[in-house]
């Protein structure tokens, strides 16, 4: 690897986190800059490192975490610390999660059965500003391009969640507060899901969500 790739490890399971750190510490030219147990803690660690002039090159992050999850954390990291790339290391390879992570700016997506060479390659690629995907994940994305989804299946998990909140009558500001994202990001998600569904208004989106059973009648 190129010299000096500094990594922040983020995982809510302490045993897993320590195992990842122990593995990274034996890789050539990799320095573990810190660790955190969830997205909010990762932002605090990054703020502290930034104050002391030592931001990492890459955050190696799980997706499923309590509080602020990985997808929300990716968005916040890319907004507040744009020089820090994020590589996802997770047990979940569902295409919706991949879409959500990449949409928020992830530079890599690995499954936790990834081998040493794959993790090293992903960190190196992210440090260069490139994107590295697990081979199985890349195949799923390629299959989707060949057979694109339509209707609700075209939405990412995050967009489905936002559609439900829209159907409940939440404003962009309320959606942002609920999901710990910026109001601008919430507005972008709403615009994207309306475009994917071919709808012109939030009212149409709410009616579709009710019809598809995302929310019970009377919630909007």
UniProtKB/TrEMBL annotation:
UniProt keywords, alphabetically: DNA-binding, Phosphoprotein
PROSITE patterns registered for this protein in UniProt: HTH_LUXR_2, RESPONSE_REGULATORY
Pfam families in UniProt: GerE, Response_reg
Entry superkingdom: Bacteria
InterPro entries on file: CheY-like_superfamily, NreC/VraR/RcsB-like_REC, Sig_transdc_resp-reg_C-effctor, Sig_transdc_resp-reg_receiver, Tscrpt_reg_LuxR_C, WalR-like
Domain (Response regulatory): residue spans on this chain: 6-127
HTH luxR-type domain: residues covered: 148-213
Residue numbers bearing the 4-aspartylphosphate modification: 62
SMART domains assigned to the protein according to its UniProt record, in alphabetical order: HTH_LUXR (SM00421), REC (SM00448)
PANTHER family, per the entry: TWO-COMPONENT RESPONSE REGULATOR (PTHR43214)
Listed name of the protein: Response regulator transcription factor
Source species: Pseudonocardia zijingensis
Taxonomic path: Bacteria, Bacillati, Actinomycetota, Actinomycetes, Pseudonocardiales
């Amino acid at each position: 690897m190129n010299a000096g790739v500094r990594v922040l490890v983020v995982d809510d399971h302490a045993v897993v986190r320590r195992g990842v750190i122990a593995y990274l510490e034996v890789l050539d030219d990799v320095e573990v800059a810190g660790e955190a147990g969830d997205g909010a803690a990762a932002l605090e660690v990054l703020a502290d490192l930034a104050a002391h002039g030592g931001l990492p090159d890459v955050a190696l992050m799980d997706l499923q975490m309590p509080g602020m999850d990985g997808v929300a954390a990716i968005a916040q990291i890319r907004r507040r610390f744009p020089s820090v790339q994020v590589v996802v290391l997770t047990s979940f390879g569902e295409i919706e999660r991949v879409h959500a992570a990449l949409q928020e700016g992830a530079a890599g997506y690995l499954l936790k059965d990834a081998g040493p060479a794959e993790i090293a390659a992903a960190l190196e690629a992210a440090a260069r500003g490139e994107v590295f995907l697990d081979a199985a994940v890349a195949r799923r994305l390629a299959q989707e391009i060949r057979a694109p989804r339509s209707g609700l299946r075209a939405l990412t998990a995050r967009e489905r969640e936002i559609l439900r909140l829209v159907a409940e009558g939440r404003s962009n500001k309320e959606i942002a507060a609920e999901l710990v994202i910026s109001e601008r990001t919430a507005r972008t998600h709403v615009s994207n899901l309306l475009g994917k569904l071919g709808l012109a208004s939030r009212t149409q989106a709410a009616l579709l969500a009710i019809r598809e059973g995302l929310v019970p009648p009377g919630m909007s």
